[in-house]
Design brief:
about 325 residues, alpha/beta, six-stranded mixed β-sheet, 11 strands, about 40% helix
Amino acid sequence: MLLSRRQLNAGLLGLGVIGARSVLAESYPNRPVTIVVPYGPGGVSDVLARGLATQLSQHFKQSFIVENRPGAAGAIGTSLVARAKPDGYTLLLGNNGSLAIAPLLRKTNPFDPMKDFTFISNALETANFLGINQSTPATSVSQFVEWAKSQSNPLTFGSPGIGSFGHMSGELVRQGLGIQATHIPYQGTSQAISDLLGGRIQFMVDPALIQPAFAGRIRILACAATERFPNAPEIPTFKELGFDIVSKGWQGLVGPAGLPTEVRDALSAAVAIAARDEGFRKLLLGIGSTPAPDSPQDFAERLRRDILRYSAIRTRAGIQME
């Protein structure tokens, strides 16, 4: 069958596009890639980003550089990536704090979490822990609740900032335990933990509390996961103790909207490979996390579900938009 000139030209154009995409996939990355962390150094996001950057650098034989851009509950770093050129050289380590929670607390947002990003892959899930100061006269959740209710003033709990995952997790625990507590926002996880150690706040709900550096300095009462954390099997879950409290976080890699499919898929495959690395898995366990890579489609659906969930928590808590 003879082809018309239009059909022939269309076919050649199609082959050209396929060829260009193939070359793009093979050549990416040909210069350093920046992974933006929308929080300060020292927290779970920072540790994960640096571990993941090492894995991706080894996989692609190219430098992946971590850049901390903290501020506004993650909005500064997150919006920077939303505005970046969609070429795969500026990525974001996003989480449910910066992408699902913080946008719910603003009347105007510098980005749309579902429209302004290309979802690449989730990287981990975090097990959240309820930690208290060692001077607090409680060694169990039930004792903590009894003590909290006996206080004349509400307790205080800290987080990396208003609208952070720690903020919502602390609020979820407060509601679930039926206690009164006031949220104290900080500029980062490390500052909040410092005040917990110093007794200036009474509790926190954060995966970083399980880090070995805090062993014996912070008393962990429960884990807000569906099952006990592998590195701390002695810590019971809230579910086991009779409280309907589950608060698992996630952190994953996203790029600006319009990221080429070939680049997205190459990065997604590399995250899955990193998740199987024993050294990387050990690093994650040390920060209260486990590898949890997924497809770009599943990652987007994960965010969509969390936006609905945290919207309901915000409404119950009466948290006002800024």
